[in-house]
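Protein Record: Sequence and Backbone Structure Tokens
======================================================

Structure line: whole-number tokens from a learned vocabulary of local backbone shapes, matched to residues.

Purpose: to set a sequence beside its fold so the mapping can be learned.

___
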Amino acid sequence: MDIELAPIFYNQVGALSSNCMKVLPSTKKNPQKIVVGDQDGVLTTFGMKKGDPQIVFKTLPGPPIATLQLNGAPGSVADRIFVSAGAEVKAFTKKGKQFLSFDSNLTEPIRSMYVNGSHLYTVGSYVFNHYVDCIDTDYYLSADTINSVICLPETSHASSSAARGLVPVLACEDCALRVLKGSELLYELEVAGPPTTVALSEEGGAGRGLLYGTSDGRLGLVKILLDAPEYCWDMLNEKKYGSIASIGVHDVTATGVPDILLGRSDGVMEIYSLDENNQPRIQFTHTFSESIASVCGGFVTTPSTPEVLVSTYSGKIHSLSSDNQSKGHGQIPPDVAAKLETLKNEVKSLEDKVSSAYVKYQSIMKGGGEGGPSGGVSALPLLPVNDQFTLNKDEAWYTLSIETQVPLDMLLLQCNVPVDIQEIEKSTAVISYSPPDPKNGSYLLATLRCSMYTSRLEVKVRSIEGQYGTLNVYVTPKLEPCSARLLSYPIKPLSLHQRTHSFDSSLPCNTLEVLGPFSTSDIHSWISFCLPGVSNCPPDGETVTLQFKSSFTQTQLQCTYRQKEAVFKSDNISTISVLKEVLSKEATKKNITIKITHSITDDSAAHMIKLIHPRLEEQLMLAKNVQLIEALQELKVHEKDVSFLSPQCQYILENASLMQEEIKRQPAMIDRYYALITDLFMDRAAFKGVNVQQKVPQLLSLLDECNIDNILQFFEENK
């Protein structure tokens, strides 16, 4: 890392949605102002003077602000502020005067928007609209949830004046960026994961590069050209950070080339610069205690020193700057000491008011106050929770993230199907388990008790495909009276699958065909029930094709369906078996008679074993090495010189901590691989109407030996 920045707190506003903070441009050599819109509906613009926030204007509360954009008249600076709340868009000058109130009359609330001159681009969950002078011009219905929208500037997309025009790009949940032309889809490009946010790669909105961040924490750059995209690079999330919530572009390193600013859901803020090969290189990392809502660059304190502005979910505005390095060292200046004394007095006054209000509240509840003889009724508002339940495709687990505006007391997790939970490495919560009660439908009951002042908690959840139900999370904050909020997350039958846009037909394939008097909506709802990443409403078109890839087995699945007919293809027999079972149950619930036929390829079983065997062999070797660590370390204590040990034993001693960390990070993986191959063996036999239960112990003993030739021979002999 080449630069050093120190954080400093600027201001506190209400809770924030993603990308609701911007830096207003300055026409003169003056510090810039920060504009922020919160979930209380308050739009605030302020600057910094001598370390204090100076409010320029502040609107009255209203509906929660979901997105904020800057725009200006053609040829001028972008100093006009546009905000969306629900289906309404409002615009303000930099002084706070409202000059536009536009009700789009959309049934969906606006999730993201982009403004350029008289052009307004808005997206809801599935619908894209383009307005020119507040007149609806273009419309597009997406096949999956839209997370963000951005437009490439007209000069960057085409050289000929006839082809010039703003080019909308939609970031969709099905791992795709969709490039539009008017109301039509120009083309779509697949990216590494579900894109959560997008940004132009050059400051000021020039160029053709488009940066995207994904829900599994990956960052990528593509160039959007007229006929086809050009992939530049895709950066892996090697440190397993959270999803990318915001991307900013600003020259923080003063090299003349814009740096990439990343804000993540787990509070990690990163700065990347591009090297001579146009590849990203980390320059700076800082971790906040809350999830980051927005990140951008500017000159807020002085017009000569660049800063990184960071806003968090709870509404805190921070600055990261090299000028902050000297602050906080040495003696406290007199003006700062006076401010601290004032703050202490304000806190003392607030504590007295809270204490007085609490005594009054207790009196009312006991019937001795305004509530009369029978006492009052305690009505608590709904606890706001910023939650995520996202699939990490690299590790094949779900990350459950819970964040509140107040400190958490505990989380209670309950699930009616078998799931494994595991803390993340940096968590300070204490997990305690209660005995499962499968007879009453409770396979998991766990309590996570939080440490003091914890407002955000993450936990890993690993499901088993074929077993589906609901994960219930009871969120209890440290508030009086004690209350909890229930959040429910579906565990789907094929929960470890993720949308993709390719299918390799050269692999051995098993087929499941379903015929019956069902509609396209019926079969789409059944597929949505089985698989994650499928929209609630069916896409347009008579025939729909969806592709998926398993994050655990790396196998593929293709679903092609229309009215009265559906065909499923996969190189995993167990996937076909799960689909057959679930589709039969769902059709029975709706009293629809369906006919199911299947075609099983024996070669697909060998293909599956070859996919799994290297990982199983690696896990068995890791477990064997970990068992030797304690004995080898004891030997090292008693023997000064251990050079007589074999190279393998010396390697185990040198890497003991890494091995123990790895097996702790992925517990019970050997059992999962055993279950996977055993299910494959039994599912193949079930499709052929053969009972092979008595041969399972023999298969397990072969798996212990981990000889792939013997395992393949066993499958061949028991076709």
